Amino acid sequence: MTNTFSTPDETDGFLVAALYHFVSVPHFAELRAPLQSLCEEYDVRGTLLLAHEGINGTIAGPADGIRTVLSFLRRQPEFATLEHKESWASEMPFLRMKVRLKKEIVTMGVEDIDPNRSVGTYVAPEDWNALITDPGTILIDTRNDYETAIGMFKGAVDPNTKTFREFPDWVRQNTGLHNKPKIAMYCTGGIRCEKATAFMKEQGFDEVYHLKGGILKYLEEVPPEESLWEGACFVFDERVSVLHGLEEGEHKLCRACRHPLTAEEITSPLYEAGVSCPHCHGERSEEDRMRFRQRQKQMDLARERGERHLGK
């Protein structure tokens, strides 16, 4: 299923396509070169991960370029039913195009977790509110701490994980998760919940549910006045965050630690563009800050020349 958005004039912005698909792809390495070449030809940028278990990534570019890349992918038998979600960005949200070969398209670090074999029950955005307000449901945010810091569903449990690899241990250590019959889980676009719900099923949880299409689909379809979402949703591109209707949020990114920043945090004396912010200032040495200042200077000079500074 293709989820499309309209825009008054497609020349005014960049089309962003988020996608993933779990499927066995024995020849995945052979797709890297032609996919990279096609993206570069159409000035499509972002990151696509290829592995034996499928594909995952987000790309942005001119609308015709994005649709050409998606058509190429769907011509591959394994990706014929590939779904994607669309939104728009006022500026190009990625610096370059990367097609990478990986062991996993989303890294959980637990072997033999296969969403094609066992996975939770999908719940459509319009049915999500009823599930998560059910007294018999425990709602779990499977994202990392820097993502949950700027927005979550009302009443959700935050595991405070720094990486998705920490999630399995968090589940094993929290025996209280068995106190209610239903487990509901969500993430940005749905991919982490594919593995997270498969893992929960293997841990003996029977009623496991996850939000189909993730937070992004919920923010697209559920009206703000009916929403149980609080805050903004972190996205892994230069937009940093999105709101209801997938409108671009107001968060900025600390270039030193990659943490999203509010307008208030940007006014902090601990914030220095490209160098530090309230979240990482105390963790950086003066040598680090000097190095970051030099990097920021090169970025500023490149911007003045109308060029892109790609960094190391």
From TrEMBL:
<dbReference type="Pfam" id="PF00581">
    <property type="entry name" value="Rhodanese"/>
</dbReference>
<comment type="function">
    <text>Catalyzes oxygen-dependent 5-hydroxyuridine (ho5U) modification at position 34 in tRNAs.</text>
</comment>
<dbReference type="InterPro" id="IPR020936">
    <property type="entry name" value="TrhO"/>
</dbReference>
<dbReference type="GO" id="GO:0016705">
    <property type="term" value="F:oxidoreductase activity, acting on paired donors, with incorporation or reduction of molecular oxygen"/>
</dbReference>
<dbReference type="InterPro" id="IPR001763">
    <property type="entry name" value="Rhodanese-like_dom"/>
</dbReference>
<dbReference type="InterPro" id="IPR036873">
    <property type="entry name" value="Rhodanese-like_dom_sf"/>
</dbReference>
<keyword id="KW-0808">Transferase</keyword>
<keyword id="KW-0560">Oxidoreductase</keyword>
<keyword id="KW-0819">tRNA processing</keyword>
<dbReference type="Pfam" id="PF17773">
    <property type="entry name" value="UPF0176_N"/>
</dbReference>
<comment type="similarity">
    <text>Belongs to the TrhO family.</text>
</comment>
<dbReference type="GO" id="GO:0006400">
    <property type="term" value="P:tRNA modification"/>
</dbReference>
<dbReference type="InterPro" id="IPR040503">
    <property type="entry name" value="TRHO_N"/>
</dbReference>
<protein>
    <recommendedName>
        <fullName>tRNA uridine(34) hydroxylase</fullName>
        <ecNumber>1.14.-.-</ecNumber>
    </recommendedName>
</protein>
<dbReference type="GO" id="GO:0016740">
    <property type="term" value="F:transferase activity"/>
</dbReference>
<feature type="domain" description="Rhodanese">
    <location>
        <begin position="133"/>
        <end position="227"/>
    </location>
</feature>
